[in-house]
Automatic annotation (TrEMBL):
Domain of life, per lineage: Bacteria
Matches recorded under InterPro entries: DUF1989 (IPR018959)
Organism: Phytopseudomonas punonensis
Location of the DUF1989 domain: 7-172
Name the UniProt record assigns to this protein: DUF1989 domain-containing protein
Pfam families membership: DUF1989
Length: 220
């Protein structure tokens, strides 16, 4: 059941507060948009979603349905419960920020995901810590090359209406940015123009997908 729907305007940020058991569906309306995502414990903003700890927990480069994202304290905070996209996402790349665009040659302010995080959270009346960990880059297409060293940055491979759904495992804030990147070709469909995306908060609990425990070596 959908309880609310929010448009993330192209190049801007939005955030939602979820109760444990609620989910947020991220819809790639036009099929071409990368959406960066961060999450925080609603009662302790120093505890935030952590890509490094998540890769340890799942032993995956990128999440698949059933994987949980864990926090800097290694507690599950979000679980990927549905993914209608080709499943290509990224946990490696730093969110774009003001300096990134300076390094790309911009001489004037360029909208960026790092500032959009604050735009979304401040709209809820919440000020997150200044330092934030790596984002989960939804629909972003970063390919590990066959030599296992090089990465290749490619346009997203999603289709219009593709979505992923993330279930909250604790009361939390989740911020999103419809990435304003229009210099490096990461948005799909050729022209690299940032587009709107949509968030839907759902009360559906997805009971068939439990929270898995962490990976541990087989000999333990
Ligand atoms: Zn960005």
């Amino acid at each position: 059941m959908t309880t609310s729907s929010t448009i993330i305007p192209a190049g801007h940020g939005k955030a939602v507060r979820l109760r444990a058991g609620q989910s947020v569906q991220v819809i790639n309306t036009y099929g071409t948009q990368v959406v960066d995502c961060w999450a925080w414990n609603a009662y302790d903003l120093d505890e935030c979603m952590c890509m490094e700890a998540t890769r340890v927990y799942n032993q995956h480069l990128n999440p698949v349905v059933g994987d949980s994202f864990v926090t800097s304290e290694r507690h599950p905070i979000l679980t990927l419960v549905e993914d209608t996209s080709p499943g290509v996402h990224d946990t490696f790349m730093a969110a774009c920020d003001r300096r990134r665009y300076e390094l790309l040659g911009c001489t004037h302010y360029h909208r960026n995901c790092a500032d959009n995080l604050f735009e979304g959270m401040l709209e809820l009346g919440v000020t997150p810590p200044r330092r934030n960990l790596a984002s989960f880059n939804i629909f972003m297409n970063i390919r590990v090359q066959p030599d296992n060293i090089h990465l290749q940055t490619l346009p997203t491979v999603t289709r219009p209406g593709d979505s992923i759904t993330l279930r909250a495992e604790m009361d939390c804030f989740v911020a999103f940015s419809a990435c304003p990147q229009d210099i490096v070709s990461i948005q799909g469909a050729g022209d690299n123009t940032p587009k709107d995306a949509e968030l839907r908060v759902l009360d559906t609990p997805f009971p068939d997908i439990p929270v898995r425990g962490p990976w541990v070596p087989a000999h333990l």
